[in-house]
Amino acid sequence: MSQTPPSSDRPESSSPEQSAGAANDPQSAAAQQAPQDAGEDRQSPDTAGSPLSREEHSSQLQAELEEEKNRVLMVQAELENFRKRSRRELDDQRRYAAVPVVSDLLAVLDNLNRAIGSAPDDPKAKGLVDGVKMVASMFESVFEKHHCRRIASVGEVFDPNLHEAIGQQPSDQYPAGTVMLETQVGYQLHDRVIRPAQVFVSTGPA
């Protein structure tokens, strides 16, 4: 009769080759280390801070929205101001585009008026003088048509924006500070002075 060898309850010890293989297997090492790391994570406190509540998040979004609205309104206001300024500058360019031409023509009109003032009182020259007066009158009509008009002077209170004082004289007829004599006619185009009127200003009675 054959005898069965007795079984051993002792666990089989791993061979040196198996121990070395387990040490060289990174997956096995990671699998053994993972439970330990997970346990450490569960034990460590959360240092990231608690998330914002729904009300706080809503308030933050509302504040950002208001800030963006204000920024958009500011940009729109700046754009509107730029448009108004551009339109105003364009209107001024159109309104006063004739200033250089009118300034040059004023010299011609001055010479015509000087010729009329110095013309001799001679019946033979009457036709020529009348012709010069007609040309001067046409100049004045064209100026008025384009909103270029004379500046009122004599009898008016002296205005440094409209008048250029070249002297002062006492006068019994005009009160102090009033224009008593005009030596050169002034003109303005719309509300812009092309040239001021040259005047004498009264200082009042002597």
TrEMBL record:
* Residue ranges with Low complexity bias: 13-37
Q: CDD domains annotated for this entry? A: GrpE
Q: Which domain of life is it from?
A: Bacteria
The subcellular location is:
Cytoplasm
Show the Gene3D superfamilies listed in the entry: 3.90.20.20, Head domain of nucleotide exchange factor GrpE
Q: Give UniProt keywords alphabetically.
A: Chaperone, Cytoplasm, Stress response
Q: Where is this region: Disordered?
A: 1-69
Which InterPro entries does the entry mention? GrpE (IPR000740), GrpE_CC (IPR013805), GrpE_head (IPR009012)
**Presence of keyword tRNA processing:** no
A GO biological-process term = protein folding
Keyword check for Chaperone? yes
What does the record give as the function of this protein? Answer: Participates actively in the response to hyperosmotic and heat shock by preventing the aggregation of stress-denatured proteins, in association with DnaK and GrpE. It is the nucleotide exchange factor for DnaK and may function as a thermosensor. Unfolded proteins bind initially to DnaJ; upon interaction with the DnaJ-bound protein, DnaK hydrolyzes its bound ATP, resulting in the formation of a stable complex. GrpE releases ADP from DnaK; ATP binding to DnaK triggers the release of the substrate protein, thus completing the reaction cycle.
Q: Record's family?
A: Belongs to the GrpE family.
Self-association state and partner proteins as the record states:
Homodimer.
Q: What's the name of the protein? A: Protein GrpE
Tell me the organism. Lignipirellula cremea
